[in-house]
Amino acid sequence: MDGNTGAEGSAVSASSAGESPVAGAAKTAAASSPNSTTSSSTGQPLTYSIADLAKEFDVTPRTLRYYEDEGLVTPARCGQQRIYSHTDRVRLGWIMRGKRVGFSIADIKEMLALYNLGDDRQTQRKVTIEKCETRLQTLEAQRDDLDRVIAELSGFCDTLRTMIREPKTGRWIDPVTGRPPARENLSITGPDAPPPLKKT
């Protein structure tokens, strides 16, 4: 039994040879976990313990309990043990993908809540596309900002690398022009610029 999950489930052993990691882990979990049941026709788990899903999705049991508190998954109870359904497992896949691309729990909860409207998931699809497009716009804007900062820092480094010290005055100069570099080539502007030095 996994010491991190206590009485809520046993650890899942490695997947069998020739199977995908997820399929192998699920089969092993179904055979070994007292909370898992298996389809007689497919041999695939129909229910999962908290240890099964924590291992499959590489999260802690505490995280799964948090998702339950938020209403994102609704495991059944057998005494103190949680028993997750196939639907819970699918919803966890949605949650993990949403978290990876930066959606908030509130966004994920809203999208999942639209699943059972009875409109063949048309509303869920529409809202999900809108949220994905908004998220893409945000990420693209962040990428543009990063590209500008990277270009500015690269130019700054190039200027510093090419400067030489003038023997007579000890000043740092541009080897091509023989003059100190232009002020704009030595400054970093924007929100990440350091504050100006105070005169003493």
Write the layout of secondary structure elements.
Elements (H helix, E strand, L loop, with lengths): L20 H12 L14 E2 L1 H7 L4 H9 L6 E3 L2 E5 H15 L4 H9 L8 H41 L1 E2 L6 E2 L27
Antiparallel strand pairs: 1-3, 2-3, 4-5
Helix pairs in contact: 4-5, 5-6
Architecture overview:
The chain is mainly α. It folds into two domains: 6-104, Orthogonal Bundle (Multidrug-efflux Transporter Regulator, Chain: A, Domain 2); 135-185, no CATH class. Helix content is 46%, strand content 7%. It has six helices and five strands, in the order αβααββαααββ. It has helices at residues 21-32, 50-56, 61-69, 86-100, 105-113, 122-162, and strands at 47-48, 76-78, 81-85, 164-165, 172-173. The strands form two sheets. It has a three-stranded antiparallel beta sheet with strand order 1-3-2. A two-stranded antiparallel ribbon has the order 4-5. The radius of gyration is 28 Å and the shape is elongated. The chain starts with 20 loop residues before the first helix and ends in a 27-residue tail after the last strand.
Keywords, separated by commas or semicolons:
200 residues, mainly alpha, 2 domains, three-stranded antiparallel beta sheet, two-stranded antiparallel sheet, 6 helices, elongated
Elements, N to C (H/E): HEHHEEHHHEE
Mean pLDDT: 77
CATH architectural label of the largest domain = Orthogonal Bundle
Helix content: 40-55%
* Proportion in β-strands: 5-15%
What structural class is derived from the secondary structure elements?
mainly alpha
Across the major sheet, the strand order is 1-3-2
Which class of the largest domain in CATH terms?
A: Mainly Alpha
Q: Tell me the overall shape.
A: elongated
**C-alpha Rg (nearest Å):** 28 Å
- State the assembly state of the protein chains: single chain
CATH topology of the largest domain: Multidrug-efflux Transporter Regulator, Chain: A, Domain 2
Low-confidence stretches: 1-35, 188-194
